Inverse folding.
């Protein structure tokens, strides 16, 4: 049986992120978002129906899915608007040494 191991992984240079972008970590798509409140990381797939959240509109701390308009809180991944009913995963983020880092959990 393997345990989840959390490590900080540099996913992008800080100056690469303007508003939103997708990065791959161990083959998994992660959406990065920058707002006045900070930088956030969520799984980059809507839990309602496959669509890239990194391509969605950002408004008042939420990202709107471009396919059907589901809304998710940037800080937590919680559903804030239907039709989605399941949250998406959020990742802790830090800015350090000119990079964007997320607290990644991989199976080791």
């Amino acid at each position: 049986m393997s345990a989840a191991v959390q490590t900080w992984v540099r996913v992008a240079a800080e100056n690469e992120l303007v508003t939103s972008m997708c990065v791959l970590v161990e083959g998994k798509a992660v959406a990065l978002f920058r707002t006045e409140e900070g930088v956030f990381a969520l799984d980059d797939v809507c839990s309602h129906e496959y669509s890239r959240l990194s391509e969605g509109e950002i408004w008042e701390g939420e990202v709107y899915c471009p396919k059907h308009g589901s809304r998710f809180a940037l800080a937590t991944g919680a559903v804030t608007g239907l039709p989605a009913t399941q949250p998406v995963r959020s990742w802790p983020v830090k800015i350090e040494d000119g990079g964007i880092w997320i607290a990644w959990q991989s199976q080791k």
Q: What stands out?
A: Residues 18-91 form a domain with the Rieske Iron-sulfur Protein fold (CATH 2.102.10.10). The mean pLDDT is 94. The two ends are 9 Å apart (CA to CA). The first strand starts at residue 4 and ends at 13.
